Amino acid sequence: MYHLITGLYAEWTKKPRYNALMVGAAGVGKSCLLEKIKSVYLKRPALPPNRVAPTVGQNVLELSLPRIHLHFWDLGGSPSVRTLWSKYYDESDAVVWVVDARHFLPLHQHADKSPTSQAPDAGTDTFAAREASWKLLSELLMHPSLEACPVLIVANCIDECESSEGLEGTIKQWFSDKLASDDTDVAAAAGDNVFADDEAYRAPSTSMLSEREYEWDVVLASAFDGATNTLLAFLTTTTSERPGILQDARTR
């Protein structure tokens, strides 16, 4: 009887577990963000960003929060590691896509000017990095295992931006325009698609990102301060206006 009661109690009080896949292009600070999260929630000193080595495989973090267990997979962004990303998709409840906030500063600095068809930094390294990151994300979003998966876009390195006021809105608008545009279709069999040789790849239900629906948002973060609190708050907190992004992730 004792074992039955304790077993029932353990089952009733068991917290759900959610898997968050943290990915992005190489060099945007994914592992530094994870290190900061560890320091905040595990109450231990964080490694300085200059001592965090590039991820060649994966970093894992388990957090036991008041209502849920949150499991992070931090995967490297190099071309060789990106071929392994899709192995984690089936078990992912949310995607944390990390970008470098500095890549969006040229857009932000010209946000109050008349819109043009050409980006203000076209032809620069910043423009190329921003577009390359979008290409990776668009391919990821078209994978059938991630259809309707909630996505949190984390703009890292905000501490290195001279002015961040309104930057979050600029980044949101850029991604919104990209998701709604008609030229974001991704050919599954294209030679430059990092998932083209994935044996488990199945044809997506729609061939255009603009035809698919995603719950997504943008937050600003830094590996040097407590801005990572916003990241976990968005993932786990239910408000009167929006359920926590993970609270109903399993219903998709």
From TrEMBL:
Swiss-Prot/TrEMBL keywords: GTP-binding, Hydrolase, Magnesium, Metal-binding, Nucleotide-binding
Quote the record's binding site residues for GTP: G24, A25, A26, G27, V28, G29, K30, S31, G77
Pfam families, per the entry: Arf
Task: Identify the residues that bind Mg(2+).
Answer: S31, T55
Give the CC-aspect GO terms.
Golgi apparatus
Query: What Gene3D superfamilies is this protein classified in?
Result: P-loop containing nucleotide triphosphate hydrolases
Name the SMART domains on file. Answer: ARF
User: PROSITE patterns given for it?
Assistant: ARF (PS51417)
Q: Single GO molecular-function term? A: metal ion binding
Q: What is this protein called?
A: p-loop containing nucleoside triphosphate hydrolase protein
Q: Which spans of this chain does the record mark as coiled coil?
A: none
Protein species of origin: Pseudozyma antarctica
Q: What GO biological process terms are annotated to this protein in UniProt?
A: Golgi to plasma membrane protein transport; intracellular protein transport; protein localization to Golgi apparatus
